[in-house]
Amino acid sequence: MHCARPHHGIRLKISPLVAALALAGIATPTFALDHAWLIPTSGAWEADANWSPFGAPGSSDTAIFTHGAAILTSNTFINRIQTSGGTLTGDGTLSVTSSHAFAGFSMTGTGRTILQGTGTISGTLNLDDDRVIENQNSTVWSGGTIYFNRHDGSAG
């Protein structure tokens, strides 16, 4: 005599919409990364190969600069920026939504830099040309020098 036992396993029901979003990559989590600028001269901010790890920083990431010049031509949101050298130039807008730490940096070009969070300036900061800097929160200037329209391109 064969006695059928009820199956007590766990059944998971996933709606077709959730499954489709997960397969399309829309419902996958994002992780904050530190992206370091690699190019010793100049290159496009948007070029994924110019950053380590591969890929331009996104809205939850940190951009780190020690050298070179990033040419920004789009409207870009990042979480944080940390600098000890290098240049941001171009006609794009960079919005930094959390914190900023400038310990040597230049900003040139006709674009905008929007600092939405708190931050520090502790080294030389060059603000050249027609670039607009919007400080929407607070920035502590703890040392160093801020230069306006210093066209030698040095960052300290």
Describe the structure.
This protein has 156 residues and is mainly β. It is built from one helix and 17 strands. The strands form three sheets. It has a seven-stranded mixed beta sheet, with no helix packed on it. The chain starts with 15 loop residues before the first helix and ends in an 8-residue tail after the last strand. The model has no long low-confidence stretch (mean pLDDT 85).
Please name the defining characteristics of this protein.
mainly beta, 37% strand, globular
Shape: globular
The average pLDDT score comes to: 85
Strand percent estimate: 35-45%
Number of separate strands = 17
Topology:
Elements: H1 16-24, E1 34-37, E2 42-44, E3 51-52, E4 62-65, E5 69-71, E6 75-78, E7 80-83, E8 87-89, E9 93-96, E10 100-102, E11 105-107, E12 112-115, E13 119-121, E14 125-127, E15 132-135, E16 139-141, E17 146-148
Parallel strand pairs: 1-4, 2-5, 4-7, 5-8, 6-9, 7-10, 8-11, 9-12, 10-13, 11-14, 12-15, 13-16, 14-17
Antiparallel strand pairs: 1-3
